[in-house]
Design brief:
The protein is an alpha+beta fold and 137 residues long. The chain has one domain. Helix content is 31%, strand content 26%. The protein contains four helices and eight strands, in the order H-E-H-E-E-E-H-E-E-E-H-E. The strands form three sheets. The protein has a three-stranded antiparallel β-sheet with strand order 2-3-4, with helices on one face. The longest helix has 14 residues. Pfam families: Phage_P22_NinX (PF10765). It comes from Massilia aquatica. This is DUF2591 domain-containing protein.
Length: 137
């Protein structure tokens, strides 16, 4: 997987410029999980967002394996914790009782959120794609 210390990889910049954009800082829930999977290299055609039956809950589903599986690194330490160990050099700072900041010290990308995981996953997506990404399909 490629990483550019400052900015977006030149090949990705042209591809991403013509589509509607969303701020990484605004990503949450299934959309954040979708972009974490994309940042890890999972192709878009292996991911989809669905609504759990009889609820309003949206989840990211990864169908790249033999069995489709929920992918929720922004809310599950079982999924997000290993990403912190392998994909991001995280440094956390409490901004208030209800907000955390995470900085990837290798890329200087930052993310904020109400939990450690949300802040870290936003920082990870920002470290790969920059401050904005294309709108989630």
């Amino acid at each position: 997987m490629w990483r550019i210390r400052h900015g977006i990889h030149p090949a990705r910049e042209e591809e991403m410029s013509a589509r509607p954009r969303t701020a990484v800082a605004d990503l949450a829930g299934a959309e954040l999980d979708y972009w974490v999977a994309r940042a890890r290299g999972t192709p878009a055609e292996h991911l989809y967002i669905e609504i759990v039956p009889r609820t309003d809950i949206r989840i990211c589903v990864d169908v790249s394996g033999a069995i489709p599986a929920r992918f929720d690194p922004s809310t599950s330490w079982a999924v997000g914790g290993p990403l912190l160990d392998t994909e991001i050099a995280a440094e956390f700072k409490a901004l208030s009782d209800a907000e955390w900041q995470c900085e990837d010290v290798m890329t200087a990308a930052t993310g904020r959120g109400p939990t450690h995981l949300i802040a870290a996953m936003r920082a990870y997506v920002a470290s790969v794609y920059g401050a904005t990404i294309e709108a989630t399909p």
